[in-house]
Design brief:
Blueprint lengths: L1 E7 L3 H12 L6 E5 L11 H4 L25 E3 L8 H5 L1 H17 L13 H12 L2 E4 L3 E3 L2 H17 L3 E4 L2 E8 L2 E9 L2 E12 L6 H11 L3 E3 L2 E10 H11 L3 E4 L8 E7 L3 E6 L5 E6 L8 E10 L8 H15 L5 E4 H6 L5 H4 L12 E2 L8 H14 L12 E9 L2 E3 L12 E3 L10 H17 L2
The structure holds flavin-adenine dinucleotide (FAD).
Length: about 475
């Protein structure tokens, strides 16, 4: 098969590339290769089984049209300060401008017009004052909340639009390698079960997301595609009763707090806050089970969950952040018999594991029912654990009750953003004809920024003759 543009991965980065090409009137032929299923065929069996059954060959939560976005909470962060480092590559003004433009596309496809966290009221000022007292920075970030069910509908509408306008989408096909000749990318090898094929294209866009970060790192090493190791985030997901978070949930929806706690003074931050949300599990190809969280627009729980993440960098002689984080995850999974571990904050401070019967004594009930009560400190590196404990104590000054005995910590919460592909402002890699976008490129960490990168890529491909 020969096409003008081959896009690998149908997450927000890949689909917004194709979408923007269509919007700009491109007549180029486009094929998207996606290893998962179409939006309408994506289905997580946990809704019926109540338990993660570790789907093979892939997890429907992270794989399929719209990528990790379809089942995600769908919080669009409308600030260049959130969602990765793309603004450092393209400039803050262009990032801001393109966020507004891309937000407009989400609205066209049916996103809620309401924006959370924009008011600079006395209540926000009070939260900021407490954050300052606690040595924390409060980041301003307006948020458009799609909600898991609505995100699904919006991406379904985008999928139908792409198909109706001639974009070919090959579902169930996995890209195994790139076709390179004399440092020029000419296409990719794909497979579905035992069937293998080659797709030739003038331009290849790799947008394989978090799941594909590991694969892309190997491809970069194999083909000498210029890249550098970035950071990896290791942390926990914290869950408390809604009453504890009531004020920040109401005023900000999502409190983006950053701290540099003693004794290490590493950057620690909150991420992905889900008022009335649910803690969830996602499984990676190598059977790694990691914790995440999401919330629905209508269905609400009694709890709020939020991730607390610490960035990790390495230099010499060891510089493989993904492998490091995987080992932490594997060790944690091992202690939970392949599941997610949960422990009460007070038990961590008391130096004891949590027992299942003790979870039942608390006001807060885990929204991830198959999480295993145990001891996350037995697997968490000391530096990360101290960062988390001292950060939680600081947040308690902004959100009284956050550091309560019963507060739940789930582990492992891992974010793999490591391999950063070196690119110019037009997203040209060191290999002619090859561009890398979204979370797998190491430049984005969220729905909006991945979509923005796709929009800019789409415009560039329309300009290229
Ligand atoms: C549970 C959950 C909740 C989240 N909530 C939010 C949120 O509220 N707000 C927010 O901003 N972000 C959220 N995120 C993160 C957000 O979903 C991602 O940042 C975003 O989807 C990245 O987009 P992407 O296009 O780079 O990659 P992805 O969305 O990961 O898409 C990549 C696609 O590539 C496919 N693929 C991978 N490898 C191959 C291959 N070799 N061949 C073919 N196809 C391949 C995958 O199947 C996938 O569909 C959440 C993520 C998860 C998992």
């Amino acid at each position: 098969m020969k096409k003008d543009v081959l896009i690998i991965g149908a997450g927000p980065a890949g689909i917004f590339t194709a979408l923007e090409m269509l919007r700009k009137g491109s007549k180029k032929s486009i094929v998207i290769v996606e290893k998962g299923q179409s939006v309408e065929n994506r289905c997580c069996p946990k809704a019926k089984t109540q338990k993660c059954v570790n789907c093979k060959p892939y997890c429907h939560i992270t794989t399929g049209f719209s990528g990790a976005g379809a089942f995600s909470d769908g919080k669009l962060s409308l600030s260049p300060d959130v969602g990765g480092d793309l603004p450092t590559l393209i400039g803050e003004d262009l990032a801001r401008e393109t966020i507004n433009y891309t937000d407009g596309i989400y609205l066209e496809f049916g996103a809620d017009t309401h924006i959370e966290g924009v008011s600079n009221t006395d209540a926000v000022k009070e939260i900021r004052k407490n954050a300052i007292k606690a040595g924390l920075k409060l980041v301003d970030c307006p948020i458009r909340h799609l909600g898991t069910e609505k995100a699904h509908d919006i991406y379904l509408a985008i999928e139908k639009h792409l198909l109706a306008n001639g974009v070919e989408i090959m579902f169930g096909y996995e890209c195994t390698n790139l076709i390179l000749e004399d440092a020029v990318c000419k296409g990719a090898y794909i497979k579905k079960g035992d069937e293998t094929a080659e797709i030739h294209a003038d331009t290849v866009v790799v947008a394989t997301g978090r799941r594909g970060a590991d694969w892309l790192e190997k491809i970069c090493a194999e083909h000498n595609i210029a890249h550098e190791p970035g950071t990896v985030d290791i942390g926990v997901r914290v869950e408390v009763r809604n009453e504890v978070m009531e004020k920040v949930n109401e005023v900000l929806y999502e409190s983006k707090l950053i701290g540099w706690p003693e004794p290490f003074k590493n950057k620690v931050r909150t991420f992905c806050q889900n008022p009335g949300g649910f803690v969830s599990q996602e499984n990676y190809d190598n059977d790694l089970a990691v914790v995440n969280g999401h919330s629905y627009k209508e269905k609400k729980s009694d709890n709020t969950n939020v991730a607390i993440l610490c960035s990790h960098n390495f230099s010499t002689p060891f510089n493989q952040p993904i492998s490091y984080a995987q080992k932490v995850g594997e060790l944690t999974n091992m202690l939970a018999n392949g599941q997610i571990l949960v422990q009460r904050f007070g038990d961590i401070l008391d130096g004891k594991r949590t027992w299942p019967k003790e979870l039942a004594q608390s006001n807060v009930r885990p929204t991830l029912p198959d999480a295993v009560a145990g001891d996350i400190t037995a697997a968490m590196p000391y530096r990360a654990m101290m960062n988390i404990i001292n950060f939680i104590k600081a947040v308690d000054k902004v959100v009284p009750g956050f550091a309560s005995y019963e507060t739940l910590l789930y582990s492992p919460e891992l974010k793999f953003y490591s391999n950063r592909v070196k690119m110019d402002t037009d997203f040209n890699t060191s290999i002619k004809g090859l561009h890398c976008l979204g979370d797998s490129s190491g430049w984005t960490r969220g729905l909006m920024m991945a979509s923005v990168m796709g929009v800019l890529m789409g415009r560039k491909l329309v300009e290229d003759k």
